[in-house]
Amino acid sequence: MALDILSKKYLPALEVELRSVINEINGTPYQQLKYMLNYHMGWEGKGAGLQSQGKRIRPLLLLLATNAAGGDWKSALPAAAGIELLHNFSLIHDDIEDKSPTRRNRPTLWQNWGVPQAINTGDALFSLAFVSMSSLDKYYSAEITLNVIRLFENTVLALTKGQFLDISFEDRDEVSIDEYMQMISGKTAALIGTSIEIGAILGNADAETQGAFRDFGTNLGLAFQIQDDYLGIWGDENLTGKSTATDIQEKKKTYPIIYGLNESKSFRKLWNKDSFSENEVEQLARILEASGAREKTRADEEKYINEARTALTRAHPMGEAAVALQTLIDQLMNRSQ
Predict the structure, then answer these.
(1) Which domains, from first to last, does the chain contain?
(2) How many C-beta neighbours within 10 Å does residue 105 have?
(3) Model confidence over 51-78: pLDDT tens digits?
(4) Is pLDDT at 337 greater than 80 in this prediction?
(5) Which of 67, 92, 210, 73 is nearest to 151 (CA)?
């Protein structure tokens, strides 16, 4: 990914910061809670390591934006940790709500320790995210710290609203593309946009530049999710590690599937079955492509990528971080997993 070189500098510092925040949970009575936190973060348990930690994209974007706006990225580490902890809180709750048995090729928390403890562990990450954000006052004024926390709070609300829409779509026969975009604007794009906007704030960018960075992140998040949806049906299984039949088999209302449901009567008729055979999955994929869903999904992905590129130009990023952010767009356009 675009952050390979810079992550050699940023990632180690980020991991130290994340561990420091989670070490706020200490004492003998809470050893299992801390272990569960470390397990989910990819630091302990069978299969622990880089592959189980995730890519840390959001906090790295925050640090890059801070640097690209002319600030000291090291001072922004508490905010980066807060963003990553909030993201992981949402993953734990998503896994419960979606009944997902695995994440990053390991059993999810609820599979190992049950739903109540998994919910509580997610809540612990949620709380620690705010603990981390509040510690920005070690490096920044009270006014800047408060502004960042307010932005963070509003993003939490946007995530919750996006997740509400996502869950509600499961029980609805009809969902429009506009409604889907509203959902991913909250569930996916809001946190990416906020990560980059907070970075710009902590880099002492002016209001106009902050807005440009925010627009860059929001459009990047929209493009990222639409591309995920595309790869979920037309990606290379050898690279994604996921069957391209999964989104259809699980009846996920992704961007191309919603388009197909709205544009193709034959797709909708077959989709309304309770379950699909292997042949029917292949048939649905063929009908979906014939409806124009593949072309439309790619076109809108590129639309948001181009809007992200334009917004980044308006932000006038500086230095090595600017190069990394530009490269990120190029690599996203060619992402295969």
Answers:
(1) 4-333 (1.10.600.10)
(2) 9
(3) 888 889 999 999 999 999 999 999 999 9
(4) no
(5) 210
Cα(285)–Cα(161) distance, integer angstroms:
30
Q: Are 59 and 195 a contacting pair, CB within 8 Å?
A: yes
Burial of 215 (0-12, 13-18, 19+ CB in 10 A): buried
DSSP string for residues in 60-80: HHHHHHHHHTTS-GGGGHHHH
Regarding pTM above 0.90, the answer is yes
- At residue 237, the pLDDT reads 59
Average pLDDT over residues 22-49: 94
Tracing tokens 């072309």 back to the chain, one arrives at 295
Please check whether residue 213 is in contact with residue 199, taking contact to mean a CB–CB distance below 8 angstroms. yes
Contact indicator for 326, 220 with CB cutoff of 8 Å: no
Among candidate residues 109, 63, 73, 107, the one with its CA nearest the CA of residue 88: 109
The SS3 assignment for 334 reads coil
Report the distance separating Cα 195 and Cα 217, nearest Å.
8
Q: Please report the DSSP string for 70-130 in residue order.
A: TS-GGGGHHHHHHHHHHHHHHHHHHHHHHT--EETTEE-HHHHH-HHHHHHHHHHHHHHHH
